[in-house]
Amino acid sequence: MTRVTSKPDKDNDPQQLPLALEMRPALGRDDFMVADCNSEAVAWIDQWPKWPAPALCLYGPKGCGKSHLAEVWRARSGALQVAASDLNGINPDELLGDATGLVIEDADLVAGAGLDETVCFHIYNMLKERGGHLLLTASQPPSRWQIDLPDLKSRLGAALVCEISPPDDDLIVGLLIKLFADRQIPASPQIISYVLPRIERSFAALSQLVAAIDRRALAEKRAVTLPLVRSVMDDMTTQS
Asked: pLDDT digits over 41-53, tens only?
């Protein structure tokens, strides 16, 4: 379907918006933007394999980018990946094989409520013995997890811990510009300025919004204008 676009206005080119963000290739994933809210986590990923501990936990709210960074590390390190909820009853030897790295996603969502802590403990020890590393993602730091096994609690208490905050304004602007550009949508600074104070601070919310705007513009054969964006956001608010 042909996209309807308005005539480009050099003065309103969203690419001209001043941004102080570093772009990082995410090794097979979309580019990852570095900002204050995630710079410490990025620094730990960059420092691998010279981590001072066998495990790193990245924690923060849903949509903050912790899984994205975990995928960046997994691609660099060749690590395996598993959801914490899938560890119950699994054989650590069969899971790891000869791997020296593992990502465990959503580690705190099942801690104390079905998580096989013994399996986690053995995985940690196996990776440490191999000189490998464990990366965990969670919404809370390990100190707040409900862990009953003392040995596992001790191991995780010695892990590196890094918080990723929700995207700040600079990162939101940069992500919006990139998401619109990926869909070849010429979003003006006025559109960016309208969206910024009204959007949930998460990567998922930004992606959903831009996709909804794209669908509406294509379905109605309209250019992406401020009235169209306002209408889409009003509809999404009504439906939520």
From this structure: 999 999 999 999 9
How far apart are the C-alpha atoms of 149 and 161, rounded to whole Å?
19
Residue 231 CB neighbours (<10 A): 14
Residues 134/99, Cβ–Cβ less than 8 Å: no
pLDDT tens for 137-174 read 999 999 999 899 999 999 999 999 999 998 888 889 98
Determine whether 75 is exposed, middle or buried from the number of CB atoms within 10 Å of its CB (0-12, 13-18, 19+).
middle
Q: At what angle are helices 203-220 and 169-182 packed, to 10 degrees?
A: 40
**Edge-to-edge strand list for the sheet holding 80-83:** 80-83, 101-105, 133-138, 55-59, 160-163
Residue 165 neighbours by CB under 8 Å, 6+ apart: 36, 37, 38, 60, 64
> What tokens appear for 89 in the block?
């009853």
Q: What is the DSSP string of 158-210?
A: TSEEEE-PPP-HHHHHHHHHHHHHHTT----HHHHHHHGGGS-SSHHHHHHHH
